[in-house]
Design brief:
Its cofactor is FAD. By secondary structure, the protein is an alpha/beta fold. The protein has eight helices and 17 strands. It has two domains: 183 residues, FAD/NAD(P)-binding domain; 111 residues, FAD/NAD(P)-binding domain (3-Layer(bba) Sandwich), CATH 3.50.50.60. Strands 1, 2, 3, 4, 5, 6 and 17 form a seven-stranded mixed sheet that branches. The chain has a five-stranded parallel sheet with strand order 8-15-9-10-11. A three-stranded antiparallel sheet has the order 12-13-14, with no helix packed on it.
Length: 301
């Protein structure tokens, strides 16, 4: 069977793209390896009517809605390669050796996070340590917080966090990521800056208690944010030759179309930031309308 479109990735972008294309009566294969990036998150926020939903519940409801449309096939499988073949079609190969062909391809594979290697981080991640103030800042409001970031954007993040808590310590983990002027500005707002390397996060039952530094210093904190480096979770865009932005995201025309005809990118894969459910879902919807319009123009002649 030749599909109108194959969507790689079953996050909010891919799911919303499948929903819109299913309702447009397009034959769609939604291929998903069921390894969502936000699986450790206790709840997702900032999505109207879905504020506080667990990632598992979000996916359950989304798949239930998408699979109401008979032209959408959900293929729970791992994609291993994608190639452009004759007549401009795309062939997708999964880990079991099954090949699927389509006229259009949507890359909605999202991002993966690379966190600083700090002992004790992962047992606390998603419980008292997070990476997005807009997603979890409200739950940590007015508490003693820590921000650990090695990236230049630490200054911007620190300014944001002050809106949720006035008791904030910024840790650069041994990196010179703040200028003297920025440090002075933060300190003038009551934000403590600590530049020594972080050795460990200390806590139990998911609750942060202390941050321990390599010099032996201990900082009492109850929660906070750790900034990861974000990279593409899959290399399909690179394999296909899609142009990339300086940030690392797949470059699009603003409506999902990449530099390779017939290839579209939606969600975190394309714009990188901000990484939120509602942005990704909206981008999936917008990209799907582009796919449908391009298919319509081709069929209309």
């Amino acid at each position: 069977m030749l599909y109108d479109c194959v969507i790689i990735g079953g996050g909010p972008a891919g799911l919303n793209a499948a929903l819109v294309l299913g309702r447009a009566r397009r034959n769609v294969a939604l291929m998903d390896n069921n390894r969502p990036r936000n699986a450790v998150t206790h709840a997702s926020h900032g999505f109207i009517t879905r504020d506080g939903v667990t990632p598992a519940e979000f996916r359950r409801v989304a798949y239930e809605e998408v699979q109401r449309y008979p032209s959408v096939d959900h293929l729970p499988t791992e994609v291993v390669s994608i190639a452009k073949i004759e007549s401009g079609r795309f062939e997708v190969l999964d880990s079991s050796g099954i090949r699927v062909q389509a006229r259009k391809l949507v890359l909605a594979t999202g991002l993966k996070e690379i966190f600083p290697e700090i002992e004790g981080f992962y047992p606390l991640y998603g419980k008292s340590l997070f990476n997005c103030p807009y997603c979890d800042g409200w739950e940590l409001r007015d508490q003693p917080l820590v921000l650990v970031s090695e990236l230049p954007a630490v200054y911007h993040t620190a300014k944001l966090l002050l809106n949720w808590s006035q008791d904030l310590v910024v840790c650069t983990n041994g990196q010179a990521s703040l200028s003297d002027e920025q440090k002075e500005r933060l300190q003038s707002k009551g934000i403590v800056v600590m530049e020594q390397p972080v050795a460990a996060f200390i806590g139990q039952h998911g609750q942060l208690e202390h941050v321990r530094f390599t010099d032996g210093t201990k900082l009492p904190r109850v929660g906070g944010f750790v900034t990861p480096q974000l990279v593409q979770s899959a290399s399909f865009g690179e394999q296909l030759g899609c142009e990339r932005m300086e940030s690392g995201g797949i470059k699009t025309d603003g409506a999902g179309r990449t530099s390779i005809p017939g290839v579209y990118a939606a969600g975190d894969s394309s714009y990188f930031m901000p990484s939120q459910l509602i942005f990704a879902a909206a981008d999936g919807s917008r990209t799907a309308t582009s796919v449908n319009m391009d298919l319509t123009d081709e069929d209309f002649g």
